[in-house]
What does this fold into?
Amino acid sequence: MVAAHAFPGIGSSLSWPSTKQAERFLLAPPSHDASLALSAARGDRQAFARLVEENKRSVYGLCLRLLSDPEEARDAAQESFTRAYASLESYDLEQAFAPWVLRIARNHCLDLLRRRIPARARVELDAVDEDGPPHELPDTASERADDAIEKAQVREALERAVAALPPNYREVVHLFHVEQLSYKEIASAMGIPLGTVMTWLHRARAQLRNLLEGQEVSP
It folds into this structure.
């Protein structure tokens, strides 16, 4: 889907990392992500290609969840990695690469969505609310694990219910349950407070329960 040759800027001179960052890494070895990012910033095509390879599934998955169109999601994922490379100087070497690039992908997708939806409907994309405790999403499919047909029907019903959620709720459900990011990583990826992540997950699960209760999932 996304390959290193798609980034013609790789190999250009970058003034990153800063001297202070470099000094810190003399005391402690860089993480896997930081090591690849450092090499990529120095023009190593293979290093950035590895970052792309390790994160392309999650980036594409998020783009698809937000945009609901495979072709548009592929283009958005490609653009997200292009922007990530161009913004390597802003990457915090002490943090994981995935939440950072997912945030870039999210912002790009939201920009695309804003261009095609009415202004009155845009508030739900960025609304912030920090109330409410987190709860676990019920694993509906596992309740019928003894019957493959019923399991498939439950998964389909759950997917329809998730697709019916507001974009911000749909996104946190995807990042938590599909990408398996932590609350902190989701907050970083979405650029929202930790409490907001917990609130949105809590409310998304409540809406999912209501939606699933109204769907027929048995033969």
Confidence is low (pLDDT under 50) at residues 7-16, 120-151. The CA atoms of residues 122 and 194 lie 22 Å apart. The longest helix spans residues 45-67. The chain has ten helices and no strands.
